[in-house]
Design goal:
By secondary structure, the chain is of the alpha+beta class. The protein has 15 helices and 23 strands. The strands form three sheets. Strands 3, 10, 16, 17, 18, 19, 20, 21, 22 and 23 form a ten-stranded antiparallel β-sheet that branches. Helix 3 packs across helix 4 and helix 7 runs antiparallel to helix 8. It starts with 8 loop residues before the first helix and ends with a strand. The protein binds zinc ion. Zinc ion (ZN) binds next to helix 13 and helix 15. Zinc ion binds next to helix 13 and helix 15.
């Protein structure tokens, strides 16, 4: 989410009032520059479908309380209590554990904003009270040092920021700023926002030109500072974010950390995605924010080249990034092993954040293609249906024995380094904010998710109810419900899989070109729309209650092949239908997933099985010689490892 806003007019007034009290100067200035395309905030869109709604409910009802409980159990909350003098004891866990708590607060705040819950609100108040207590007098917040400086992980003692490369003092508070903004926008209360502002003011006084010239080893603070800037209007925060983006790769004032932290050359000179993939994704997202707000074009070439290096050469079919386990990051071009793929859930999230921002900046459909592919596959695999077991890596192949998931073979209830579960917590409730966007009188429909929405466009208000069984069915109905007519131009995304394009570039392609048809009608009259940047354009017209737009995308089982340069996939085929990437699991394929035979001599059909895995579409292969012989049963990749521990493969041998 880029600009979440409050859900009710009443809350909007509270927020405005509080903002006026503290930041009157903001309202006397011209409106802040920001992305040319504006996302419709998640608070204006309510998901009502059978696919995502249960996932969002599980996140709210299970994953939020579960991850808070885990934070208590593992000492994450207690660290704040000890740092604030409420308890006695020693720091427990990893030095960046504060950030996990901040991420849960962010997700819980989003939930609170659309689902008022006094009990959760009170719980947040209590946790925030402890966080505020752990903040030092001048704004510094890092329990790992505050509890006992002599035992600080960086061995810096009383001296702060002694090893920015490794010890995450800045990464942690970046997440705190994001949480603070979310909590403030959800409640109108400044309890955490004031903690964030005090901390950011300290950083502004310490870091920058002619002050401390270091950069964080793990990016995140850039995104956090921009969000804090948006809500306060304080340009010092924006300038500090830009400083951190520009100072990376500049040897003046700090020793370069190298490619692992993308600290090997200035951003504007970078062309390849390298290093740790979560660091990279947050970095690129932060730089895109700066490009949009400051209207600079100095990052344009780098953003385009890096994007191409990922999407043309380094991304998995599932939208996962980060091929190498050793450094949790990018490997060389075309090096995409399946069983050892790291493809961290956080990296999928970072890639989604970045691609959404690139869409908001440039308006091209290719970014939302990557977003959708990652959302339904490499991200969604990261959390179980039950909401209490997780993947950290999301490999495309498993043998049923190797403990690929941080020491576990299968889904795990928690990790010592638990960045991924708590990242899921904050992404799911904000998902409605990625469906629509506006620009002037244009409405972009980017994701096909059943929802009820009401938002401003062209000085009016439009109410839309979208009904669909996507991703299983390509029919999408948008019923307009506003009584007062509003003029708008609809821009409806044609997904890449409809356009015979797995993703832009030649890394993956469909084995057979299919002429999939899209049907578009308005009030029963078929349209022949213009297509621009991958969007079907419904020319500007008045929309009012009773109007109906219907889109029907052909969905077909598609075979995918990889560029020959990807050694791991030579001679192999993967299957897709709509936005879903499929995999074969041992439980459905008793002969094993590595010895499937006859695929070239099979025909494939799609069936929806409402009784398995919360209801999934399956791809069934039948022998052409013997139609009674099943040669393949494939399920959506996101649904694997729910029934038993066993082998799984996305890329299947075709010999
Ligand atoms: Zn993670």
């Amino acid at each position: 989410m880029v600009l979440p806003s409050t859900c009710t007019n009443q809350k909007k007034w509270i927020v405005l009032f509080v903002l006026c009290l503290s930041y009157c100067h903001v309202f006397s200035q011209a409106p802040m520059a920001d992305y040319p395309i504006t996302p419709v905030p998640f608070t204006d869109v309510k998901i009502i479908d059978n696919f995502w709604k249960p996932r969002l409910e599980t996140n709210r009802e299970v994953t939020v309380p579960y991850t808070f409980d885990k934070s208590v159990e593992t000492g994450r909350i207690r660290n704040f209590e000890i740092a604030g003098g409420l308890e006695k004891g020693e720091f427990e866990g990893i030095f960046f554990n504060d950030s996990d708590v901040f991420k849960i607060i962010e997700g819980a705040s989003y939930s609170l904003q659309v689902n008022p819950d006094p009990e959760l609100k009170k719980y947040l108040d209590d946790v925030i009270f402890k966080i505020a207590g752990a903040q030092e007098e001048d704004g510094y917040l890092y329990t790992n040092r505050t509890i006992d400086p002599s035992k600080a992980a960086d061995k810096g003692g009383e001296k702060r920021w002694t090893n920015l490369k490794t010890f995450h003092e800045l990464y942690n508070v970046g997440h705190m700023y994001e949480a603070a903004v979310a909590h403030y926008q959800a409640t109108g209360e400044r309890t955490l926002l004031d903690v964030a502002i005090k901390n950011a003011d300290l950083l502004v006084s310490v870091f920058g030109p002619e002050r401390k010239m270091g950069v964080p080893g793990h990016q995140e603070i850039e995104i956090g500072l921009v969000r804090l800037y948006r809500v306060t209007g304080n340009e010092d925060y924006l300038n500090l974010a830009k400083f951190f983006v520009d100072q990376r790769g500049n040897a003046e004032g700090h020793e370069l950390f190298g490619e692992y932290s993308q600290d090997h050359k200035p951003f504007s000179e970078q062309e390849n995605a390298v290093g740790h993939s979560v660091r990279a994704g947050y970095y690129y997202a932060g730089a895109t924010d700066i490009a949009a707000i400051t209207r600079t074009n100095e990052y344009d070439t780098a953003l385009d080249k890096i994007w191409e290096s990922i999407v043309h050469r380094k991304i998995y079919l599932t939208g996962g990034i980060g091929a190498e386990r050793g450094h949790e990051g990018f490997g060389p071009d075309y090096e995409l092993p399946n069983a050892t793929a790291y493809t961290e859930t956080c990296a999928a999230i970072a890639l989604m954040f970045w691609n959404h921002r690139m869409f908001l900046l440039k308006g091209d459909v290719k970014y939302m293609d990557v977003f959708e592919r990652t959302l339904y596959n490499g991200f969604l695999s990261g959390v179980s249906f039950e909401g209490n077991t997780f993947f950290y890596p999301n490999p495309l192949e498993a043998d049923g024995v190797t403990k690929f998931n941080q020491g576990v073979c299968g889904r795990s209830p928690w990790f010592d380094c638990s960045c991924c579960p708590v990242n899921v917590v904050r992404v799911l409730p904000s998902l409605p904010g990625y469906i629509y966007a506006t620009k002037g009188g244009n409405i972009f429909v980017n994701l096909f998710v059943g929802n009820k929405s009401s938002f401003e466009v062209n000085g009016g208000n439009i109410d839309i109810q979208t009904s669909t069984n996507y991703p299983w069915d390509g029919r999408v109905e948008l019923a307009i419900n506003n009584t007062k007519a509003v003029s708008a131009q609809f821009n409806i995304r044609i997904p890449g899989w409809m356009r015979n394009e797995v993703m832009q570039g030649d890394l993956y392609s469909y084995a057979e070109e299919k002429n999939l048809q899209v049907m578009l009608s308005v009030n029963g009259v078929e349209q022949k729309p213009q297509v621009k940047d991958g969007y079907m354009i419904l020319d500007k017209q008045l929309w009012r209650k009773g109007d109906k737009i219907v889109v029907e995308f052909d969905m077909a089982v598609r075979k995918v092949v990889a560029d020959e340069q990807v050694k791991a996939n030579q001679g192999k085929t993967a299957f897709e239908r709509g936005p879903i990437v499929y995999c074969a699991e041992e439980i459905d394929n008793p002969k094993g997933v590595f010895s499937l035979d006859g695929i070239p001599r099979s025909s494939f059909e799609y069936i929806f099985d409402g009784s398995t895995l919360n209801g999934v579409g399956k791809i069934i292969g039948k022998s052409k010689a013997d139609s009674k012989k099943t040669t393949l049963v494939a399920i959506p990749y996101y649904a694997w490892a729910h029934r038993e521990v066993g082998a799984m493969a996305v890329w299947l041998n075709v010999k």
